[in-house]
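**Protein fold record**
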Amino acid sequence: MFEAVKEFIYKYYISGIIHDTSYNIVDTVSYALILGISTFAVLKLLRLLKVDVDRDLIRATVPYILAGSTLRVIEDTEALLPPWKYILITPPIYILIFIITVLLLVLSIQIGSILKRHWHQIFSSMGIIWFVINLTLLLRMKMPERIGIPLLIMALGTTTTLSVYLAARKINFECLTDRLNTGILGAHLIDASSTFVGVDLLGYYEKHVVPTLLINLTGTAAVMYPLKLAIFIPAIYLLDKEVGGKDDQRTQNLINLIKLVILVLGLSPAVRNTLRMTLGV
């Protein structure tokens, strides 16, 4: 029995981390459940720290998403050797980024209290410094090979986001004219653009289960655009209209934290994919 469990864990979890291969249905479902449980655990932690999950916190957290993405690409360059490289592969890297982010959040709050300054600015600045350090190290390891790739991906992502925004304004769909919601959707459409460019134009492959299935069925990674819209527009709408009608702070914190998680799930792979293709790794 022990050997069977050990083999199961290795096959569906450990092997994917060691060899950095595509996800399977078992680890995909497992990580989704862990993410859901972790969201409520983070909410409780922030409550203990007396931190509200507002738009200021979301904006201040964006540099940490960028820092995490650049750290992941450092592993993609194969500059690190086992076992250290495994720490920078999903899901261990998310744990690492979370621990560092929380520690810097606590430090920012303490510094802000001492200096009588708003801690959001200090927290954001620390994230920016971390991101710049990671990006500098990355560029020292590998120089860019495809300068036009970021421009192409941003052009595609911006165009599709603007199209959705203008359509939402025309039909007075306020959910998608909200600045935060538009930013979240934009992150995911940039992610869709990076997948489209990588798979259809440069020969990369998709690692996630559902996108891989749909790409194989349709024969193009352009299917990521309708997939993103079909998932995240209803999700954002339900958060704002069905749950967001409640005025208590705890509910608003939960809604904003879920939006932050959705932002991470879009922006993080978008930045990583774009950097990988730009560097040619």
